[in-house]
Amino acid sequence: MTTPATPEQPAQQRLPRTLTRDLSNHDGQTVRLQGFVHARRDLGGVQFLVLRDVSGVTQCVGSGLTLPLAESSVEVTGKVKAHPKAPGGFEVQVEDFRVISAAVEPAPVEIPKMEWNVNPETMLDYRVVTVRGLKERAALKVQAELVAAFRDHLMTEGFTEISTPKIVSAGAEGGANLFPIDYFGHPAYLAQSPQLYKQIMVGVFERVFEVAPVYRAEEHATSRHLNEYLSLDVEMGFIEDEEDVMSLENRLLAAIMTRLKTTAQAEFDLLGAHIPDVPAHIPRITLMDARALVTEKYGHAVGGKDLDPEAERLLCQHYAETEGSDFVFVTKYPRAARPFYAHPDSNADGTPSSEITRGFDLLFRGIEITSGGQRIHDHAMLMDSIATYKLKPETLEGYTEVFKYGMPPHGGFAIGAERLTAKLLGISNVRYARAFPRDRHRLTP
């Protein structure tokens, strides 16, 4: 029967709440479920309700029920019974049904029927509701576990989590692609990277990381870019060169994938995705060799200073086919393709190169997910680089000052959490790997 919404009974008189994932532990027992009306149907006086809670969905069967609109929050009390065709292999035979909070109008999208490739803009327009979908929340759960694994592993390697300003007076990468804001009458910007601050903090903790949003005022309208995204930043001191940084990321990714296999396998299964194995030594190739490889093997001429998206895809295809690796480091980037703080590589005689840096990118399944490298730590070299890049030293004084006081050789990288999540799960558009994405056309919801 249906019980109208009423003040709850005292806790001692009520059954404890059971989650749908635990129904197998209660076969034949009476349980109390709380969740949302995921789907409903009425077949000649017998009502079927699919209830969704944080752990999954289950089928509830009753008669004489007055079912509210989809997405209403409800409480079901009933007996658990094994049923081979029910989600999870069990259903609940309703003994009491209570509406906790009724939806006042039909949901704009039928959540059980949503697909990422159908009306994508509609799904984002109504994100406050569509984010409740099983696949949508699975992607966000994977990302949450990915971030937790990121934190946990770095802390085991002696890193300290930091928090850096998101309102800054100048850009970390030369002032381009910044969102300007009015800061009490003074010009300021949203931070495009914590890069300069995390380098400063190497002088404090030696090994630091941050999980925080960053902002890029880039007028992209692609499936791989966001204007606000979650950046997983790492910086470490007392390194020999960029190989130490790449080795750290290698270990970190292996730890992340190991955790995902334990904590998020159900979400990968739901999305039909595969958690990759991380090689003990991710393959490396220099940028110039990579450009030559995709031209000679695939006939793709690479323009510009970097690899274009098609070249990234082809290079990953090569390493997947030849070495069975979904990952590849592209190393030795030219100075023109790297920011002013990138450390120059060494010439054969040990002198600093004027053309090549110790910067790298990490590609995964056809797309860049990391940019990193060794940074300049010598004050004189840094000031020369700022001049070479034609930047204004006075706008960077708060950053460059620390290099007067004995900064160690250091380097790091940043991973875009949404981009990595999307590639792990086979999501074609990175916007669906963020709860409420921000791109050049979207400020709501």
From TrEMBL:
One of its GO terms (molecular function) is ligase activity. L-aspartate binds at E173, R216, S371, R375. Keywords: Aminoacyl-tRNA synthetase, ATP-binding, Cytoplasm, Ligase, Nucleotide-binding, Protein biosynthesis. This is Aspartate--tRNA(Asp/Asn) ligase. The keyword Cytoplasm applies. Residues 140-445 form the Aminoacyl-transfer RNA synthetases class-II family profile domain. ATP binds at R216, A217, E218, R224, H225, L226, E368, G416, A417, E418, R419. PROSITE patterns: AA_TRNA_LIGASE_II (PS50862). Residues 195-198 are annotated as: Aspartate. Aspartyl-tRNA synthetase with relaxed tRNA specificity since it is able to aspartylate not only its cognate tRNA(Asp) but also tRNA(Asn). Reaction proceeds in two steps: L-aspartate is first activated by ATP to form Asp-AMP and then transferred to the acceptor end of tRNA(Asp/Asn). Homodimer. Belongs to the class-II aminoacyl-tRNA synthetase family. Type 2 subfamily. Gene3D superfamilies: Bira Bifunctional Protein, Domain 2 (3.30.930.10), Nucleic acid-binding proteins (2.40.50.140). It is found in: Cytoplasm. Its main location: cytoplasm. The record marks P87 as: Important for tRNA non-discrimination. It catalyses: tRNA(Asx) + L-aspartate + ATP = L-aspartyl-tRNA(Asx) + AMP + diphosphate. It comes from the Bacteria.
